[in-house]
Amino acid sequence: xxxxxxxxxxxxxxxxxxxxxxxxxxxxxxxxxxxxxxxxxxxxxxxxxxxxxxxxxxxxxxxxxxxxxxxxxxxxxxxxxxxxxxxxxxxxxxxxxxxxxxxxxxxxxxxxxxxxxxxxxxxxxxxxxxxxxxxxxxxxxxxxxxxxx
Length: 149
Description:
Blueprint: H1 14-34, E1 37-38, E2 41-42, H2 43-52, E3 58-59, H3 60-67, H4 71-83, E4 87-91, E5 100-104, H5 106-127, H6 132-146
Antiparallel strand pairs: 1-2, 3-5, 4-5
Helix pairs in contact: 3-4
InterPro entries: HTH_MarR-typ, MarR/SlyA-like, WH-like_DNA-bd_sf, WH_DNA-bd_sf
GO molecular function, one term: DNA-binding transcription factor activity
Protein name: HTH marR-type domain-containing protein
């Protein structure tokens, strides 16, 4: 077995294994083609700011957990985003002073909006190769996959 192949799941046929490998390879290529930078934000920074784009402050620990980052990784990214003026850390006076919360600044909201526009422009470029029916099918399938986590 090659190192990039996963072991066959119980009950999976060789044809299904090949199909899954082809899907995985296509997603890897697409992910790489989309790029790492979206306007002023890297892909991970965009994900973090998206999580901060709620009306309530987010606990630093919760943010790191949702992003799958270590405490050190979360802190490094927040240091960078705070240095750019995109995020602001604070402690709640009404709650546990040990907990650090993060909010999105107006500059962060603007950077996120710009990054989203770049992302959507790239999506349009890729998805216009598909017919309206194919885009609908893809949207349905991605919705199914997104609700299975």
